[in-house]
Amino acid sequence: MRGTLGDGLNSAQRTAVTTLSGPLLVLAGAGTGKTRVITFRIAELIRGGTKPNRILAVTFTNKAAREMKERTSQLLGRKKKGEAGPEVSTFHSLCVRVLRRHARTLGYPEHFSIYDRGDQESLARSALRDVRVGHEKLRPSDLLHKVSGWKSQGITAKEAEGLVSKDTDLLAVMAYGRYEALLRASGAMDFDDLLLNTERLFREHPEARFAEESRFDHLLIDEYQDTNGLQYQIVKALASRHRNLCVVGDDDQSIYGFRGAEVEHILHFKSDWPDAKVVRLEDNYRCTEWIIHLANNLIAHNKARHDKVLRAARGRGVAPRFLAFEDEESEADAIAAEIHGKINRQDDERIPASHIAILFRTNEQPRAFEQALRRAGIPYVLVGGQSFFDRKEIKDLLSYLRVLANPLDEVSLLRIINTPARGIGTSSIEALLKKAVEEGAPLMKVLPDAPKIASVSQPAANAIGEFLALLDEFRARSRRELLSQWFPEFLARVNYKAEIERQYKDPSEQETRWNTVEQLLNSIVTYENRSESPSLIGFVEETTLMSQGDDDDDDKRREHSVTLMTLHSAKGLEFPEVYLVGMEEGILPHKRSVIEQISHGSSAIDEERRLAYVGVTRAQNVLTLSYAKGRMKWGKLRNQLPSRFLLEMRGQTDKSQEIAQLAVEQLSREIERAEAKAETEPKGKGKGKKSASPRKKSGDEGPSDAPVQAVRRKKFDSNGQKVPSVTARPAPPPVPPPAPPKAASSESAAVSPPSPVAPPSAVSPAIPSAPLAPGATPEIAPPVAPPAPPIASAVPAAPVTPPAAAAPPIMPPAAAPPATPPAAAAPPATPPAAPSVAPPTAPSVAPPAAAAPPATPPAAAAPPIISAPAPAVERPAPAPSHPRRPDPPRFVQVSLFGDLEPPRK
DNA sequence: AGTACGAATTGTATT
DNA sequence: AATTCGTACT
Ligand SMILES: Nc1ncnc2c1ncn2[C@@H]1O[C@H](COP(=O)(O)OP(=O)(O)OP(=O)(O)O)[C@@H](O)[C@H]1O
Q: Rounded mean pLDDT of chain A?
């Protein structure tokens, strides 16, 4: 099937693939083959005689880049050995390559460091300290968010000054300036700088731009809807000479607005490139008709969008399922059990684990799933999230490497100077920093002078001497030898193992920690084998630019594992079976988006909807959406509402609006409570000694930010229309000496795992949190039953054939036969095996399952939907009378919303 | 001076 | 949960 081009392309696709010059836009919905167009087009260019290395394709993730490389080489058959393929990379790695070539031009060291989120936070903290802004006023993460916003619009600190008025913003601007200075002094760039500096390079240094734009004759960009202003400029700069620019994207899948992406770039492509050819694709080849139906229903709720047709090229398929669970553990356990069944079947319905993905919104969600999957013995790969490279050990060691490569790198230097503890305490470090500031020299430069500084103790000075000797020795070796050759010895010399043993008392924890160090060595070796010209800097760079689950090792593991990832990372991918979990108000329309929308009137929720749309359209055959009615948060059980998006997909618009309304009310109540609490105990911050004490502290709170207040203003507008006038802000003295870094003070382990509190186990049979529920709820329930009278009655009661296949393996012996297709056809009210099985095992299981039918007879399906709008439910979970018993995937009853209206036609 | 421990606080998404 | 701060110990 590789032979002729045109195999596997419809006519619109073929048009795009064979338009080989000039600007070209493919604007089309999910799964219509946009990425395929890019791949085929690259192949076609090469067949037509274009040299592969004259083609640059830009993707959004490293994973996507690898995939594209692979697919093109498949299309082209074996490529001649030694011949370079097309260049496929992400914007960020492209920029790094450009910048390494021109770093000096911009005044950076050639081996500039790249700061990831963690490094940025350290720096932001220093910056805030330097401008004397307490972190109650502005947290490092808030600062970074603002700074990133400015940077991705190309706004400098100086320019920003004229643009802001709120005084927290002014503080932020000052901190921004300081932050930039610190970055510069460290010879480091953050992620935004990679783009910003590239753009600047092209703008201010025509010769550099010329050199770079001359490297390629064709430029192709995937996911163009998610480019930000800088990326847009970079694209323009690179394409304006040859004009062979092909961009592909879908405005409905624009999900990176939070980091400055603007859909306008794709929507206005035609005006930027008036001679552009525009191709639209309308046939979705990925999903079943059912899935497309839901996706279309959903996305239609977004007002501002480029309307497009999206129709399924495939058959109807099975009806997606909507499941409700008592809490996140039940959700995870039940899904794990179901997956276990699917991947362990012996008949031909068996599904490989790699065909299954669990998708979620936030990074805290996978925890329950990881546990459940592990208990069930299901192999999985968690993509993204807390990266391997984010672990403390790894960061420590990488910091050594970075300092070896770039001695200016202050964040890394401060991290390692006393790690392992070698007797260089905070006061010594402070003195050194002070001296560095006085001399305007980098910290590293003043270290040799340590003995001459009075406030540096003798032992500390000696320790510094040894530290420097160590660095010198290995810096020299790093010039001659491969990293893998000297790294083991380096570990020994640093005595990092002893550090781990000192820090962690628990032997098993010591072992895991040390294991991660060994894994680091592995990944060094892997890198050196793969890379054409391995280098210290190259390795460090890769670790910062690639997140976990993004290297080829993970690709391999994924071949036999279930994939867990966020919706954001799932963009562009597809899986035969998808579980979209945690579909709840507050999570999928994320709380913050709701707040932002009602306070700033933005369209933050639309972006959440797009996220849901992306999620739904990842599924090829089977889609399961689930939510938990309650969720543990900060040790308290919190009731959750089902996501409005679930209802929108189902065509129950009125229901979804009610939910939206409830969600807002709930949020308002929460905010109100938080404020009340904040005002009752303002004494908390009794640190009176702060010289710059802002006297505005009294009466009504400070000036600041917090969306919280904004909401309050909107919603309870009553009296409070005090416009936060810009009072005299505490002018921070210019450049006070940088604050001392915190000595590595890590605490020990030994915290016994707080046994996950048992869910409301025996409590509340049918989870009628009745007392608190505002009257509204009950009435809302009934109408939920969809406009499908015929089956309607049957459905509510009918718990979906519970994870049919799920149980077999572990629970009943001969339960194999189930497999009742998930279609709505299932026999009514047969709370299957569940009850009978559950009781003995887990107490927490029984109630929902068994209780449901009796307690809430007819409308059984409905209540769960709105059961718990009350905000203040937080009942402390019952005592840990829960036998810690992880083994059997607990089997939990699920319920339906009601009937689903099938795709028309 | 340096380190260890406990308490308190707060948590979108990603290159 | 992870970090940071305050406090007490070596
Ligand atoms: N003409 C075609 N015939 C058969 N299958 C196709 C055709 N075009 C695309 N496909 C298949 O449809 C699926 C989706 O394709 P692709 O990933 O390129 O879509 P996309 O538009 O990039 O999707 P998304 O917007 O979700 O990233 C892939 O499995 C692809 O192989």
A: 74
